[in-house]
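pasting for ref. prot 1 ->
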Amino acid sequence: MSDDPAPRHPMHLAAFLIAGPVSHHHGLWRDPAGAVPFLSVSHYVHIARTLERGLFDLVFFADRLAIADRFGADKATGLRHGDQDSTRLDPLPLLGALAATTSRIGLGATRSTTYDQPYHVARAFQTLDHLSQGRVAWNVVTSMNDGEALNFGLDTHLDHDTRYDRADEFMELTAKLWDSWAPDALVLDQGAGVYADPERVRYVDHDGAWFRSRGPLNIPPGPQGRPVIIQAGASDRGLAFAARWAEVVFTIGPTPADLRRYVDSLRAEMDRIGRPPTACRVLAAVMPFVGATTAEAEDGRDRANALVEPLAGLSTLSAHANLDLSTLDLDAPVDRLEGTGTQSLSRLAGRIARDEGLTLREIGQRYGRGVLVPQLCGTGAEVASQLVELFDAGGVDGFVISPALLPGSFEAFVATWCPSSSAGAATGRSTPPTPSGAISRPGRRRQAQARVVLAPDEASSAVSQASSPVNVTATIGLWATAVSRSTVLR
């Protein structure tokens, strides 16, 4: 690998998690090595610290707002077999715990624009941005199915394009609320008794088709000004939304050609609306199985995939598509899958089933082993080569690493990729193709700057603290670290 060409720009890494018993891989909770303590905060703290040590840019939590009950119009299948919605803790409180126990990695959580209110979301993420010292991100979703609607007093989920219309206005109002305090509005002049400059805090007076809000937000600007926005829109309407708002896009593509088509479409839409391509990074989901030998990695993959119950995958696919698949013959070939939920995933599942001649049971097993996320397999050097190849051929900016097992998948990956480790040396690179630079937000990021007036006896202490390496925090990039990305975080 030492002769491999250098990547065209820094390769970014994010980690995908669900605060529950599975991730994309539905066999996760059945790991023979032991029960996964998914109800324990220490579980997530350990994972986040592992990822931080491995120089990841970001860990983010997907979320949904209902137990899956689209398959058979009942909750039984998903709960019995442990599908993707069988348990989901609220990720926002978890971010608070991770903010207190990590120092550099970005922290992302999901909130729905269909079943929440802009003021509430703006306030929650602004709070977390302060608590994390500028490391928080919002994964914006429009939600998926009627089960979520029923939990919020509605009979049916909004139709696909209407959800995005609402989401656009949701984002507009949230941005207004985040910007309702000028960066220098917080004065804190203790001698004069002036807390803030009221002329630098404004009402937003929003009155739209979906929302009304006077504002302003009751929290000063966070270190980032606004949290980083993550999105995963892949339908035509979803892609237009991502092109307008996203700074990180998470996508699933089975082949490099699929990824390249998506990246090209997103960049073209961004260009059409006047956003530079550097304003958004596209990260492709992959699920690596790393072993000391190729055979060991393949054995680990096969054992993990054998844990997947096809009905668990079908329950999740039904929830994603907002479609009851129990009405179809389990052992008959699948020709087409169309629902009113996540269009891109249901169409992709239908395409794969049709192209490969899979039955419904077989596509359920395939979906359950990763929600169509490509699985990579090999030694650390082999997986690194596969990622570099996919990075270049797919035109992406990096990868979302999805675990098959926890915490084992991340531990194995980090052991391989940390420059100081013996496994990292096996890649043949002095610096492995991990994140080595910031994901920038040109022309938009701002630092909240309070015009703090300190009492004389506090001034020297403040200067000392400001110059201390311990207090250097991320303010530019997705999250730039306080040390070189080529150095293992201690």
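and prot 2 ->
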Amino acid sequence: MDFTKFVAMLDNRGLFFARASKLDDPFEGSYSRANEQLRPQVYTQAGITPEQQKRFFGQLKVFSQQAKFWVLVNCWHMNEVESAAMWKLYTASNESVCIQSTYRRLREVLSEDRFAVSVVRYIDYESEWLPEGNLMYPYVHKRRSFAHERELRALHFDPPPATLQGEGTSILLTSHRMPENGSLSNSLNWSRRFMWLRPRLFGFVTWLRA
């Protein structure tokens, strides 16, 4: 994230969740083409008539489009080491910050009754079936062209009117000790590096490396 977003995170004492409708992937929140092709066979075998299927999936299509405005997403990259490619792809300036944490820490501060946390699965949207039956399934599946992201997502469903405005919302953490490490862009100037002393007061950062 850029430095201003990092400061906003500290000021709000929370993580920013973006509205799914604001994410760049046009397939965000959608089912695969394989789902559309295989549904008649799958659901007919389950005893659902063609008329029932037409009505249900027509309603599901409308609901899925609306849900993009109600699903909030917080995205993480999973890796054992820093990724130069991810720095270039997801930082808009030379003064940027990377927050490091673990699945356990993230799960501890996001209650299970309000948030889903899942690794994203990358599939072929032309030939692979995407699981159905849960609103969040389409948001933890992406096309294989995004596999380099190695993404983990925290998801929150917040129906209107709360999420009808803006890019998303900052959600207060139940604990302020979630991130374990922080990494600075090598080009971050020294005056900005000095400011890293302040986050330690909030318990956000355990140690830093430049």
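Residues 30 and 138 are 6 Å apart (CA to CA).
The radius of gyration is 20 Å.
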